[in-house]
Design goal:
286 residues; alpha/beta; Peroxisomal Thiolase, Chain A, domain 1; two-stranded antiparallel sheet; 18% strand; globular
């Protein structure tokens, strides 16, 4: 028996903020942003949008893609660090909107890695409990946490949510391995102290770059080894969409053709927990 992907769904806000738009807000330019990040635009929520509304649309599309209904779900997990409210959690708010009931619901707060953490938790729960289908969503509304006068951060991030439906399968298919971890000692390099005086996202870009380029290739190698495959057997590597320069560095370090690392960050920016499920949906459906 395996745990496999059954469907996906995306939702980006309708409002688009281009690099040229940002150049009118802070001391920056399209050239400056593009050269350093590869980002050309990002989506941000409008007046009548929030995390739940985005997650609902993404979840609804994922259910449709999987050809199931909300009542079939035994588990909903949302990876996010930007909940609309503390309680109830986002997954619980999604439950009735999607037509689900009596299923387990939880949020996972792990910033950009939130979707991967949520996937691994869903996989573990489905492997041990009587859960046939699970909805796993990942996304953030970072525009609410942004200091729009700080050009080192506001040019990077966007809003968006992606969702995936997992299903139990009678054959050995689906997920082969996970490699997850963290280094809390590097928390100073990227933080959001929403409960303090400075409520905005703050980042040391150089420190984040060094950490990522050192850690991500090793994690990929570990996942490949656990799965019992070779790096050349893999068609595509779907990585977090933070910065095109990071993708280029990882590609070079692992000696993997850059063409195997698809990207959409030029159109979405860094959507935190939303980046991998949004890219996954795009790759599957194009």
């Amino acid at each position: 028996m395996g745990i496999a992907l059954a469907g996906t769904g995306p939702k980006l806000p309708s409002k688009v903020l281009t690099n040229d738009d940002l150049s009118k807000m802070v001391d920056t330019s399209d050239e400056w942003i593009s050269q350093r990040t590869g980002i050309k635009q990002r989506h941000i929520i409008g007046e009548n949008e929030n995390l739940v509304s985005l997650a609902f649309e993404a979840g609804k599309e994922a259910l449709k893609s999987a050809n199931i209904e909300g009542k079939d779900l035994g588990l909903i997990i949302v990876g996010t660090s930007t909940q609309d409210k503390r309680l109830p959690n986002t997954a619980c708010e999604l439950q009735p909107l999607l037509g689900a009931s009596d299923c387990a619901c939880m949020d996972v707060s792990s910033a950009c890695s939130g979707f991967v953490y949520a996937l691994s938790i869903a996989y573990s729960m489905m492997s041990t409990l009587n859960i046939e289908y699970a909805l796993v969503a990942g996304g953030d509304v970072l525009s609410r946490e942004m200091d729009w006068s700080d050009r080192t951060t506001c040019v990077l991030f966007g809003d968006g949510v992606g969702a995936a439906v997992l299903k139990k399968s009678d054959i050995e298919e689906g997920f082969l391995s996970f490699d997850i971890g963290a280094d809390g000692s590097k928390g100073f390099a990227l933080y959001d102290n929403s409960y303090g005086d400075d409520r905005y996202i703050r980042m040391d870009g150089q420190e984040v770059f060094k950490f990522t380029v050192r850690t991500v290739p090793h994690s990929i190698e570990q996942a490949i080894q656990k799965a019992g495959v070779h790096k050349d057997d893999i068609d595509l590597y779907l990585l977090h969409q933070a910065n095109l320069r990071i993708l280029e560095a990882v590609s070079k370090k692992l000696d993997i053709p850059l063409e195997k690392l698809p990207h959409n960050l030029e159109r979405t920016g860094n959507t935190s927990a939303g980046s991998i499920p949004l890219l996954l949906d795009e790759v599957i459906k194009t």
